[in-house]
Design a protein that fits this description.
The protein is α/β, with parallel strands linked by helices. The protein contains 16 helices and eleven strands. The two termini are about 30 Å apart.
Amino acid sequence: MSDLKNDRFLKALMRQPVDRTPVWMMRQAGRYLPEYRAVRSQAGDFMSLCKNTELACEVTLQPLERYEMDAAILFSDILTIPDAMGLGLYFETGEGPKFRKPVRTAADIEGLQVINTASDLAYVTDAVSMIRRELNGRVPLIGFSGSPWTLATYMIEGQSSRDFARAKTMLYTQPELMHQLLDKLALSVIDYLNAQIRAGAQAVQIFDTWGGALSHAAYAEFSLAYMQKIVAGLIRHYDGRDVPVILFTKGGGQWLEAMADTGCQALGLDWSTDIAAAKRRVGDRVALQGNMDPAVLRADAATIEHQVDAILAGFGGGPGHVFNLGHGITPDIDPDNVKVFIDAVHKFSKKY
């Protein structure tokens, strides 16, 4: 597909040379933008916004109107899959996502159906198609999903959790039951991401937000093995170009080599991992995405610029770096500081 006016992001993921380091932000369409808050109040609530094709498209494009980003990311939520499985997702103001019917027993897991995106989550692929059309080749579109382990934690706990007591209890006392759940989720994620790719997503990211809560052995068995299964099941070439896959395990810096072995094209790094050390460890096997602490965006312009320059210097020369935050931008950030951040990546990355 030669219709892309800016393919820096895709080139960097494939470790091809670019004129400057591409940049996007996790949660770039979100609550730090007043225009997002206006559309969200118009939609009524978060899930209504996700399910409204036109509005989901509008908020996906909002950050591109303000900033010179090198990619758009689909506006959606990682919990669309468990919601489609019938768990009754809802959001309490200030408390995050909750499920009316958490998954606790063998019978609960037995009753779950692997999703069929075409019938269960058409609103997501409709949004992908519309966003891709509206982008008209400005920048590539990223699709995404949660990892099976991360989705499972929400489904078992019934909400977000500090210690994942229920999920870990199942993992250690009924490992075969946990594997049954993770297998259904992996098959669902494969179907979901492939549907996004067919609808127009040009790269996909798997968010393993809670993988870092696992022990070394449990991570390999209950998180990474399922992400590897997903990577193996994805459409890797579509519409005349490669479709790169990014794996992001928050708190997963100790497992980069194993993650690179999955066959993905890129690894997302959180801010706790030194990017220079990460590059030494994975060499030229994968691209690296990251990894400024989102809290830096609360600082003054000089501090933001210094932090950006330090990460670029850490990565150094050569291809394969996509600049990003080490996690999603938080709602309290001044949009002007984001401009300082994006401009700094443009300004300082040319020399590398």
